[in-house]
């Protein structure tokens, strides 16, 4: 056979729903086998053509995504636009382009592989979905979710029913309007959570409401989708066939729950908590996914429905859920999935879909669906107490559609329930609405605004004889010893009790929705109002047991409460700030992102944790401390037994942050097994009596004098005053601390124009530690460091004179209600000791 001859032919034949193109080609037309060297057309063979198609789709999709990313657009927008570009709207107008890269004979293979990728993508969405979340939905979520579905479904259905009585609507258009009205009410849980993840709003107040409401709406729309599917079957089969399909579908769902889920739970128990799954375990689940897809197709349902139900049966989160997501998601979502939606645009021409009366009527119903969905979300949201701005953001989010809706549109068109004109209008309107809603939500809603205005909770401006409220953040078990021993040397007692909120931070992996859990299954059982259920994690139990031991040692002076945040690192700070505001914390303690040993070796470096710390420093409604642990504070068993003293040094240069560090140090003075040295580094010019008055210097001097006069006669408190002319002298004083302390406490911010640090700032690597803190975190020093920030620079003077929130929402739910600061004093009020 000559490689230059025509290898395929096509023609129209009667199809299941309409006239279709039948392609005839040679059976061995798969591999080119070097045909290019003898003048053959490589792209006339199946395998090279599929490679070229996937490469082209991948490149154009990713290019569009990068181009529109600054406008807060997701990959769904890239899929839509790439389909429009490839289709007859733009590139498909060229017959040469279509015949070269997307010929008729090459579409079936591309669509089949795309369907396989979509099937596994739905499986991953099912794995990420926690179906039990709907049982935790409150009355507000149920109200909003139900209204979001019922209002557009009922109103659009009513209009579709009455419209033919006023204007002429042909039978085909009337049939399409029925399904358009049903689709207008859908807001799918995976789409909403994916959108919220892209916008970093998963664990925000509006994000949590949208997540729960979309789950409720999804349950309503799921039954509507089943009805829509059975209506499609009713056109082809008799009632008995439909009845048998329903019976077998229910039987298969029961089989998944009764037989398949126990096997998956057994596999889940055999995987180490933070370890990888075995190859045999992974392959077993993949075969189960293919089997569920096959059974679903046999029952007349899309293959993705079966794999999605199997995914729901898989426990989300680590270890099994996160392992499956890591192994499948990147390739299926990044390479295979775009093909399904790009090829859907090959026959779509947006320049012609809106022409004629039929197009105008269908577009009217589509727009009406979006308007009624917006109203169906906005009105109940305002009714339950959301502000207008937050209700608008929530409504825009619920109006967004994504990959699930796109797949349903395409399936309906393939089953002749929608015309090509209806599909084009649905996808085009979806592109406009979703593409416009996402940047609007970013503009209207900032989750940090509800706590940015509260800047009065600090140790310095609280009554030293009242309870000290601390929030300690734990990323893993290695953080626990240093944090607990830091709490020990804070010296809780009956006169100065402390209340500790322990927040375990877990990266969102293998699940779609961010959650905030309160309580610990091993310590106490009853969740607080902001929680959803007690934590069952083995790691969380061990962390909670360690803090429970601390509470037992200080049973009359310390209270401990436990929380777990499962959220993306990009928005994890929102949970930290929410808990600190909820509990009225005076200070938040977060671990340093590098794990540094005593010898100076860096064992772990997590840029994601660094980003969390930077966001907390910028937005926390209270003071923040970053603990750089070098295993010195953690090794305080001998200190607790009184065998040796823990030597604490406070470096005091001046400013709000140093004053906050001094206030924290004053809480340690009662600890009988610690010694505190206050090193005050002052400018040499301060010795001159004729020096101009400096209000900040006067406040510093007053606080230091108060501290020293209060602890006169305490031989565990020592004071060193050093005068420095420049940064060289400051460095000399700091280096003199080597070998003389186990913990150094220092403020974060110091005036960069001060002679004492001028020039050092050029060498700062980690700005979140400040100039001095960054120097102390280098390998030259062997002691642990606690860097304290009272307020982000520039916010002190503008917030200390008011108790009312600046720019915060007027509405706060039970899980984010706002507390008045427990103690509020003037910015310049001296420290009480």
What does this structure look like?
The structure is a single chain. With 833 residues, the chain is of the alpha/beta class. The chain folds into 3 domains: 1-43, no CATH class; 64-444, Na+/H+ antiporter like fold (Up-down Bundle); 452-816, HUPs (Rossmann fold). The chain is 49% helix and 12% strand. Helix 23 links the parallel strand 11 and strand 12. The termini are far apart. Residues 1-5, 521-536 and 794-833 have low confidence and may be disordered.
Provide tags for this entry.
disordered N terminus, alpha/beta, Na+/H+ antiporter like fold, disordered C terminus, Rossmann fold, 833 residues
Give the N-terminus to C-terminus distance in angstroms. 97 Å
Would you give the CATH topology of the largest domain? Answer: Na+/H+ antiporter like fold
Level of helix content?
Answer: 40-55%
Count the domains. 3
Do you know the CATH architecture of the largest domain?
Answer: Up-down Bundle
Number of E-state strands:
15
Mean pLDDT: 79
Low-confidence stretches: 1-5, 521-536, 794-833
Number of helical stretches of at least 4 residues: 27
Widest sheet, order of strands: 5-6-4-3-7-10-15-14-11-12-13
